[in-house]
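hey so i finally got around to running both of the ones u sent me last week. sorry it took forever, my laptop kept dying halfway thru and i had to restart like 3 times lol. anyway pasting them below in the order u listed, first the sequence line then the structure token line for each. didnt double check formatting much so if smth looks off just lmk and ill redo it

first one:
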Amino acid sequence: VILSFLIRAQLESIRHFVGIKVDRQLITVLVERWRKETHCFNFREGECTITLKDVAILTHLPIDSKAVCVSDHPPEDRDGLTGWQHFIHSVLGVKVPIKGSVDATDRLPPLRKHQVSITWLTKYFRDHHNPAKDGVPLTEESPELEKERYARVYLIGMIGGVFFSEKSSNLISYGWLRILLGSWDEMGELSWASACLANIYHHLCNASLKAVREVGGAIFVVQFWAWEHLPWIAPLQCPDGN
């Protein structure tokens, strides 16, 4: 139903990375061998690292495009809504509660100072299209606007919660919303593989610090890279593929 929009954004491959189980012990071992000064893993046999070619092959994300630039400069407040509230409402048709509103708790409002809750957005749209909750199912016959909105929320969940996630995969920064709620064709002109690699480096460098206990970003790419380049640690596969 939403594949055509993902194709326009050159992000159709991300749908294959839902629910991937990450080997945390493997990631911990790799982080301990990561050197932020060189952006390389330091093994007994020598240094090696994840390259842009690796990311492109493993994720099928585009390379030869424009750089991904994230800016969270707020839009102007309009119609009694904050700038980001109005921006989200104008594209997705939903008013995200902020602190002090009737639909939000003061402790954890869905719309915060610099971020919005991915969990709240995805749940809202799933419920909206869930027949069990009096929602309208999303089908090929659904209005084009509804399919487009659902595709954008799907991308918010995948980009903010999987590929470019922070330590908590529940939140996405406003800067990403400018891209994911913008033009589909402009999204398709971005070098997503380059951004993914830079983000992986950033999170590996952060995780290599003693005070940090969690690692964000597309860690599953690091895992796939390790399986590819260090085959003796890859999981054994039975003849039947299990």
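and the second one:
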Amino acid sequence: NNAVGSNVTTVNVNNLGGLNTLGISLVRIDYAPNGQNPPHTHPRATEILFVQQGTLLVGFITSNQDGNRLFAKTLNVGDVFVFPEGLIHFQFNLGGNPAVAIAALSSQNAGVITIANTIFGSKPDIDPNVLARAFQMDPNAVRNLQARF
């Protein structure tokens, strides 16, 4: 019931103090039909994702130095996929039914940076001319995106 069609329930050091210094946390991701966990990164953790229900398209993008290569795969119930620390990655529910995944992260405080929210929703706004040049688009389109975040 949100713009991206997913809900992430997190268990980390912020809500389970006993994880402090243990280097592990857990999330459950519930996806609506055609829902996604949009492109994001965890600056302090590698993630391993297990599909409990449904069919997901997942992937990550390597660094600029590696040619920004996309590694993507369709996962079914019981499949797993690893997202390396710090790399942008995503999940998308391909099915017409809800999907559920469980992910473990190699940090008690993995952090999350959702790319679109960060770029277009910063406070204060990044100058639209900077983003227009970076994304090779019209500054008015940037302003429109900033208004949505």
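quick thing i noticed on the 2nd:
Helices lie at 115-120, 128-135, 139-148.
anyway thats it, ttyl
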